[in-house]
């Protein structure tokens, strides 16, 4: 068995699921992947204009997952690379069929994927502890209490 994958028994009953793996994917089901929740190194919101445009919303929510905690299951995400404010690139991965945003790779954090919360089958456990680029947040967005608000990128 591959870690995080289920084993189907008689009548398609799921016989083993590793509780720390969360399945994820796009709207149409063409791209599927999973993350190991035990490897997550943080969770955040980003209010930069690029995230606003890429998501079609006021901000992006994501968790930081090291490559060792990321497993591609099916399909292939397409990437679109832009220059980041640090001068290093940001590649945003999405489904080439339905356009769903899936995850990003950021030059300033090599080896870590920024997995979009909307791509997770169940994101109810997420609790972002910080928000980036708050100086470009939409004025109608109410910042949650207890979340560190950072004007630009952290660091």
Structural write-up:
With 155 residues, the chain is mainly β. Helix content is 5%, strand content 39%. The chain contains one helix and 13 strands; from the N terminus they run βββββαββββββββ. Strands 8-9-10-11-6-5-12-13 form an eight-stranded mixed beta sheet. Strands 3-4-7 form a three-stranded antiparallel beta sheet, with no helix packed on it. The longest helix has 7 residues, at 49-55. The protein starts with 6 loop residues before the first strand and ends in a 6-residue tail after the last strand. The model is unreliable at 1-16 (pLDDT under 50).
Question: What is this structure's SSE topology?
Answer:
Elements: E1 7-8, E2 14-16, E3 21-25, E4 32-36, E5 42-46, H1 49-55, E6 60-66, E7 70-74, E8 78-83, E9 89-94, E10 101-106, E11 112-116, E12 130-132, E13 148-149
Parallel strand pairs: 5-12, 12-13
Antiparallel strand pairs: 1-2, 3-4, 4-7, 5-6, 6-11, 8-9, 9-10, 10-11
């Amino acid at each position: 068995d591959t870690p995080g994958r289920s084993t189907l028994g008689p009548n398609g009953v799921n016989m083993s699921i590793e509780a720390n793996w969360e399945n994820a994917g796009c709207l149409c089901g063409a791209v599927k992947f999973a993350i190991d929740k035990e490897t997550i190194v943080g969770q955040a919101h980003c209010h930069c204009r690029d995230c606003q445009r890429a998501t079609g919303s006021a901000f992006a929510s994501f968790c930081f997952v090291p490559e060792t905690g990321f497993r591609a299951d099916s399909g292939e995400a397409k990437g679109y690379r832009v220059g980041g404010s640090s001068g290093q690139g940001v590649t945003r991965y999405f489904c080439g069929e339905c356009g769903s945003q899936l995850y990003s790779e950021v030059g300033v954090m090599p080896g870590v994927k920024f997995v979009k919360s909307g791509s997770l089958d169940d994101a109810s456990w997420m609790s972002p502890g910080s928000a980036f680029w708050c100086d470009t947040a939409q004025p109608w967005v109410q910042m949650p209490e207890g979340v560190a608000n950072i004007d630009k990128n952290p660091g």
